[in-house]
Each structure stands twice: as C-alpha cells, then as structure tokens.
Amino acid sequence: MIKFFLMVNKQGQTRLSKYYEHVEMNKRTLLETEVIKSCLSRSSEQCSFIEFKDFKLIYRQYAALFIVVGVNDTENEMAIYEFIHNFVEVLDEYFSRVSELDVSFFKAVSQVFLSSWQSTGSS
Is residue 123 in a domain? Predict the structure, then answer.
C-alpha cells in the first residue's frame, strides 16, 4: 500500500505531496526532510529502493525532479518504480516536457492525475 507520494527538486524543496495515511503536519515536515535527505544523498549508481524505518522508499530522478513514493513492506518495488515512470510520461504528454515549474504552478493538474490513477488502480 502506498503511504505517500512526493515530488521534490534537487535543493530538497517539496513541489508536490500526497499522503494516503494521516500524518500530523509537524511530523510530515520531519518525515519529508529525512526522506529527501536519504534520497538526495545517494549516488546514481546506487539502487533506487531504500529500507526506511517501517516502510520502503522507491524513488526516481527526472532532470531536476525526484519522485519519491513510500510504501509498506509487502508492496512490489518494480510495480511502484514503473508507476512513477508512467506518471511522469503522462505529465510529459500533458505539459509537452514537464518541468519543475509546471508542477509548481499547476499542482491541481498533477494532483488530479495522481488521484485518478490511485483511485482506479491503474499503476
């Protein structure tokens, strides 16, 4: 099960976040900081799957954006990795080469795509 979905830039600023379990706002900030730090500190040769606390992080970098998905231990990592890729392809098609600015200025569009995919199970 997906716990959260984050899009962050190389500076560690969150551009889009969606939580599928309740997390208090002060804990979200701390969680995002720790998650982003662990993903950004890894080299490109390292695996994109990280064991983190009581869940797994699956992340992928596209230009200046990192997409990070937190999942429970039973989730298939490759399916989530492919879900991230498909999500970026949809955004690329919609925005004609998606950029950090597109995600920042048109958060509603990204949220709609993400929510519709998640609710229909088309990952």
Answer: no
